[in-house]
């Protein structure tokens, strides 16, 4: 019966009311199952209620702590408010109390005040006694003034609350008291549902709007990145996590410069072949090309010491190159296989030399791969077998093993360097010029493929060779580049 | 007196090394836990060569041998160290380079480690 009075006040939420400031207060008040009655003669039911009350208070406290500005932004439809509303409401008479204390002039309707009201109610109410007190202190301190100021009306309310039973409903229409209790409850619940739904809709709208704008921004960023990458400003995937080590960043920069040199060398080789220079002139150009690659291996050696994992994962290369990555670079035997198909003017002696080079590079690769395999297995067992006690030691051991990756990348680069040098030894000057031009163009195309791959259309992509955009772009690209027609 | 003991010890270990190195056609000085040593062993086995391996971490004179090898190489030691036909080839670097430039196989054949 006191409950129905609380019910009226709840009803006042959804409509214009003299308790206008209170209508938004509802979200911030605690909610308990509406069928519990706070002031109860029977202790056992009361214990159950207190438990739920304490739980709700604890929950609310979490929400308060996360939502400090709740006080200030009552009049705006804050999305979070909706979640609080979703809890079943307080017993009606309980709603009454916080509102009354607010009525006493508090602008900020916060749960703290509600909690404090609870505390004060706890004080006045014989049944609660001290049960509530332990939970509330942290919040209650700053709000002590509020409590004291609202003490009187609270107490007044408490008293009136206790007498509330026989009072007729102030607000809504007539009818027998029992009917009104039911109606009031239902209507209140409906009103709260409406509120919750409204807030939920607003929240959803805001979220969708945020998503849309983020999506647009992401698309723009991706575009910028592609443009920058195609212009050679950003090398490598630069995937998730922009944390690149200084050694890696330095290497990437040096490698970008090396790529510029590479283009220059490639055009030099091309013009040298077409110009039919003398062997001695070609010799100079070929030697410069080999020195250019030697320079790369030097750079990689330095990078291996500072960040071998950057090298071995190929983050410095383009995506397509990364597909064929072996131990931080190209696979020498693959290069030889590719060249065998392209170089047709070989003497028998040269052919033998090239085939033994293919075989020895393959054997070298195999040996290094097996060594690396053993290193990986060893590293796995080191990481897996660490116990709690000597975990630091195990970490140190693991770190040492990671460091020995350096040795493998260095040996792999050594293999690559030796292969290129041996090619120079086997071939004549003119053949070597062609050979290095082939190599240069091959990797140039691989990089171009990477660019196309990165910028390929990804939505509604019909995988039809004849009609896809990428293939037409590729055709245009290839026709504009020199073929291996020089041979 | 102290230095001469050290010197004699050093020359002793050098002798040991040479003795071991000439003991077989292909001799590898290795560390059992070293993965690069494993790689060089795989390289020779892959070529059909059966090398003789000395794990210096399992040798009581291991430290001495390592020091002697460092002196021979003229650089801070990097296992593995390979001898073919009693002659020093070097570390993995050199072994790979000699294989690629085609000098390793003739060396092996001369030492009788390869027949083809």
Automatic annotation (TrEMBL), chain A:
Biased composition (Polar residues): 146-161
Full protein name: BZIP domain-containing protein
Coiled coil: 204-231
Classification via SMART domains: BRLZ
Superkingdom: Eukaryota
GO biological process terms, semicolon-separated: DNA-templated transcription
Location of the region described as Disordered in the Swiss-Prot/TrEMBL record: 1-20, 125-182
PROSITE patterns: BZIP_BASIC
Family, similarity comment: Belongs to the bZIP family.
Keywords: Activator, Coiled coil, DNA-binding, Nucleus, Transcription, Transcription regulation
Species, as recorded: Fraxinus pennsylvanica
Classification via InterPro entries: bZIP (IPR004827), bZIP_sf (IPR046347), TGA_domain (IPR025422)
Subcellular location: Nucleus
One cellular component term from this protein's GO annotations in UniProt: nucleus
Lineage, uppermost ranks: Eukaryota, Viridiplantae, Streptophyta, Embryophyta, Tracheophyta
Classification via Pfam families: bZIP_1, DOG1
Ranges for domain BZIP: 188-203
From TrEMBL, chain B:
InterPro entries linked: GlrX-like_pln_2, Glutaredoxin, Thioredoxin-like_sf
Family named by the database record: Belongs to the glutaredoxin family. CC-type subfamily.
Domain of life, per lineage: Eukaryota
Keywords, ordered alphabetically: Cytoplasm, Redox-active center
Chief localisation class: cytoplasm
Species the sequence originates in: Fraxinus pennsylvanica
Keyword Zinc-finger part of the UniProt annotation: no
Identification of the protein by name: Glutaredoxin domain-containing protein
Glutaredoxin domain residues: 26-89
Subcellular location: Cytoplasm
Cellular component aspect of the GO annotation: cytoplasm
